[in-house]
Amino acid sequence: MESLLRVENLRVEAKVAPERYAAIVKDVSFSIAPGEVLALIGESGSGKTTVALSALGYSRPGCRIASGRIFLDGTDVLTLDRETLRKLRGRRVSYLAQSAAATFNPALTIGEQVTESAVLHGVMDREAADARAVDLYRRLDLPDAENLGRRYPHQVSGGQLQRLMAAMALCSGPELMVLDEPTTALDVTTQIEVLGAFKDIIRDQQTAAIYVTHDLAVVAQVADRILVLRGGDVMEIGDTAQILNQPANEYTRKLMAAIRPPPSATGGDLDAEDAAQRQPPVIQVKDVTAGYGRVTNGKPATTVLRDVNATVNDRSVLGVIGESGCGKSTLARVIAGLLPAAKGELFLDDHKLEERLADRSLEELQRVQIVFQMADVALNPRQRIGDIVGRPLELYMGLKGARRDERVAELLAMVELPGSFSSRYPEELSGGQKQRVNLARALAANPDIILADEVTSALDTIVGAAVIDLLKGLRERLGVSYMFISHDLSTVASFADRIMVLYAGRVVEDGPTHSILGLPSHPYTQLLLSSVPELRQGWLEDVMKTRAALAGIARAVEITEVGCPFYPRCPIAIDGVCDTRTAPYREPVPGHRIACHRELTELAEFEQEF
Amino acid sequence: MSEASNDATQEISLNSAGARPLFQLSLMGKVGAGILLFWIIVALVGPYVAPFHPADFASDDSFGPVSAKYLLGTDYIGRDILSRLLHGARLTMALSFTATVLAFVVGISLGFTAALAGGWVDMVISRIYDAFLSMPTIMLGLVVIAALGSSIPVLIITAGLIYSCGLYRIARALAIEIKVMDFVEAARARGERLPWIISREILPNAVIPLVSEFGLRLVFSILFISGLSFLGLGVQPPTADWGVMVRENLGGLVYGSSAAFVPAAAIASLTIGINLIVDDFSAQRGQEIAEEMI
């Protein structure tokens, strides 16, 4: 077949100093046929976005396309003048960015923004564009297609906005679409809907696509061919099946190895898990309700957590899982004392831990340390690494001078960073290195428990896997406990002794990891489990087929006062019961609780179908 | 923008980042720095090299012309203008510098306190400052000086308080932006006290925008104090001050004397010099921020 896009010997350079350039993409060649999806994968810094953008004849400020040729349907886009190029972009080639929230202008209606490019480029008039937009909304399974265009971006959910971005990119009927990590920021449950919608529409419209991502499991679902990049070099290019099953390149194999297998009950060390359940608790959270705004009668203006109970045992790991907005981070903030709870109690060992930071003793503060998700903003950009890691040593242990520096070097070594880093500033470090410093600072306090809030979420697969291994090693050596918060079930399952599932601020299930993964579980947990992409082609189709039978899964999360929080989305909800009465706890085994109105046998039946 | 790009450019820029000087002046910036340096030297050594005492009636001529003895001529009662200018430099610059420092100390400490304490503390301080801001500065100065009389401490405190309004607003906004950053949360969770959080976590991140603000406020207070002196409310004759000198010699303009023009030119060149540096600094910071965002 004649190729639609042909890139030959592309070289892109970035400005490193005045008049000095360094290559960030070296000698990349590939082609795409009409209707074909090519995935560009690689770690951050591999140049995947840079390559994808060059298909639009675009290079970012500070970068330049140094050499190579890019043919779109026979024309070399690099020879086009500005005006022709402008007409090309948006009309024949369109771009779909990672963050929908940042792409939409909150002050304009969705319809205006979806049709803007098509109308502006004169592809069609406003009425035709509006009609096409409505058609696209339907194809993307968006609710209330006729009226959706009149709404504003804040009135739809994140997953819907992501699909609307696809509508925006497709409205002018482009021949080529560039998708840059379009599902990376989404929860697994939402990711499925969005992936399914993308895949259908790409097939329907026969649009060729470049799909940029670092997630191989996602690639397996959507791509026809895969191009593996590393440091601007092509490692391997081939059909999806070949890359997944018989990767020829060393680096591709390493990438595949870093992917955690989907959670299953058979993995993991059962004895260690059992031992962890028998340890005495370090932290106990009892009936905590918390939120933001003024508190009246033990109820905050906006409730985020409702009646939450949790226990972290000594030398063990509690995994807290749930989608964004479920209250995971709020729970960590409550325990750390950053957000006093409106109601409920906290215990450290067996004595009460005060709600407010100001009321806690220095020793209590030292024993509970929190590590934030974004190492970028968790480290003060104006402090040297040595001062960042050294501060807890001064504060809690009174270490000064040479003894402090010595200990800082030890801590850096513990997180596998060279001691010379202590004189550097955070901006001189990579994302993974910053996360290690973030961790070293918590370790400096010699804590009993570390509250780790999504510490691997912003990292690449390989870097993230290394951080998890580090956490495991530290637990073995230092006996520190973790509350490990994540939205990624595979990561949690590979690491935690116990798992707690939060939905809309309430605990819907908690228990030992193998029991959660193996025994019948809450419908929401099942939804989460089945939503983790598997590294095989056709997985998405299988899931979509089962999902199609289960209505109501795609509805938005509502924080409810009464009944089960999952009721609006639950496929096996009992009307008149689940929405009015608080669910009782089912206990398949001691220490494993499921908050559901359905009997355990019914849950097990449902699990079979799912 | 994707993470990929950031990392790529970051890694490359690492090697060059260390060697780069923090701040390099452009040509206009260098001109500004030259002017400022000149006036600082004048303020430091001027009084020692002045040929006459500033209050001496050195000549019998009023509005005497430029001559070998009186390099810049004489003023309306025959005093040597050069000598008065050299003495005045020290007073004018010291006054406005002290007033600006005062404005900084007051504005920043109140701004940071309001931002971090929040609630009613913020409310009370902000409303008081709003009341201040609603009055024209010169008029406010006039009222205070009319009530308390004019002396150098009163001048400094008045100018300092007036210019602390703007600084309060800026410092409060900066602190509100920085305090929600996770590193401040981390410091709170660690058990750090407020003074430490302000001085070690927040202030270092607010320094750069505040530096250019310092330059601007310095210019404003030079103009404000000279303006008051010109109106007869600031520094009182016979003390040599540039604003006073402009006022005293205004009458000479009719006779074609440059006596009023010389101090006016001094004020203009000093403020322009400082502005050139500030402009250059802000432009470069702006560019760096723009580059970071890309």
Please provide a brief summary of the model:
Chain A is an alpha/beta fold. Chain A binds chain B through residues 14, 16-17, 20, 22, 24, 42, 44-50, 60-63, 98, 180-181, 212, 232, 336-338, 357, 360, 362, 365-366, 369-370, 372-374, 377-383, 391-392, 395, 427-428, 430-431, 441, 445, 458, and chain B through 1-17, 181-183, 185-186, 188-192, 200-201, 204-205, 207, 291, 294.
Can you offer a commentary on this structure?
The complex is a heterodimer of chains A (610) and B (294). By secondary structure, chain A is an alpha/beta fold. Chain A has 3 domains: 5-257, Rossmann fold, CATH 3.40.50; 270-382 and 445-518, Rossmann fold (3-Layer(aba) Sandwich); 523-609, no CATH class. The model of chain A is unreliable at 551-555 (pLDDT under 50). With 294 residues, chain B is mainly α. Chain B has a domain at 93-293: Orthogonal Bundle (MetI-like fold). Chain B is 74% helix and 0% strand. Chain B is built from 10 helices and no strands. Chain B has helices at 3-19, 27-49, 81-117, 119-133, 137-148, 152-179, 182-190, 194-230, 242-248, 261-293. In chain B, helix 9 (242-248) packs across helix 10 (261-293). Chain B is elongated. The relative contact order of chain B is 0.14. At the A-B interface, strand 1, strand 2, helix 1, helix 14 and helix 16 of A face helix 1, helix 7 and helix 8 of B.
Widest sheet, order of strands of chain A:
16-17-18-13-19-20-22-21
The CATH architecture name of the domain at 93-293 in chain B reads Orthogonal Bundle
Q: What's the CATH topology name of the domain at 93-293 in chain B?
A: MetI-like fold
Question: Please, how many domains of chain A?
Answer: 3
What multimeric state do the chains show? heterodimer
Number of helices of chain B: 10
CATH architecture of the largest domain in chain A: 3-Layer(aba) Sandwich
Share of β-strand residues of chain A: 15-25%
Instruction: Please tell me the overall pLDDT of chain B.
Output: 81
At the fourth level of CATH, the homologous superfamily of the largest domain in chain A is P-loop containing nucleotide triphosphate hydrolases
Class of the largest domain in chain A in CATH?
A: Alpha Beta
Largest interface: A-B, 53 and 34 residues
Note poorly predicted spans of chain A: 551-555
Give the N-terminus to C-terminus distance of chain A in angstroms. Answer: 40 Å
